[in-house]
Amino acid sequence: MSSSSDTELVRQVYARFSEGNMAELAQLLHPDVELHVPGTHALAGVFKGLDEVLAVLRATAAEADTLTVELQEVFTGADGQVIGVDHSRGIRQDRTLDQRVAIVFTVADGQVSQLTEFHSDHAEIARFWA
């Protein structure tokens, strides 16, 4: 897959998540996909396989009263590596979230095989999901 195709795949992942379209999002993810979310909150951890990854993505959307993830930049590296930088905003009960997040995507055979999140403020994420 070319770097432009990898970039478009990552854009599609963000779009499908933002739309809440988990069925189409699932088509973009490898069956053995892994998601790495740093932190100690309930939605942090390493999630393996399509079922686990989709479950945590659904929970992420469902647990917040509002959540918007606006893709701001995409950087393409070598060997199927793509970085998406987004601005995540949300409200959950009496807590707010407003920060930039970077996700490193690994693309293999036309699907995302791994996602690793990096947060600009881990304490804010922990408070939001507490």
Outline: globular
Number of strands: 6
Alpha-carbon distance between the two ends: 39 Å
* Fraction of residues in H or I helices: 25-40%
Overall SS class: alpha+beta
- By DSSP (H or I, 4+ residues per run), the number of helices equals 4
Order of helices and strands: HHEEHEEEEH
Q: Which consecutive residue ranges, at least 5 long each, have pLDDT under 50?
A: none
Using the CA coordinates, give the radius of gyration. Answer: 14 Å
Give the quaternary arrangement of the chains. single chain
Chart the SSEs and their pairings:
Elements (H helix, E strand, L loop, with lengths): L2 H17 L2 H7 E9 L7 E4 L1 H14 L2 E11 L4 E12 L2 E14 L2 E9 L2 H8 L1
Parallel strand pairs: 1-6
Antiparallel strand pairs: 1-2, 3-4, 4-5, 5-6
Descriptive key words:
130 residues; alpha+beta
General description of the model:
- The radius of gyration is 14 Å and the shape is globular.
- The mean pLDDT is 95.
- α1 runs antiparallel to α2 (22-28).
- The protein is 35% helix and 45% strand.
- By secondary structure, it is an alpha+beta fold.
- A 6-stranded mixed sheet has the order 2-1-6-5-4-3.
What is the gist of this entry?
With 130 residues, this protein is α+β, with helices and mostly antiparallel strands. The protein has four helices and six strands. A hairpin with a 2-residue loop joins β5 and β6.
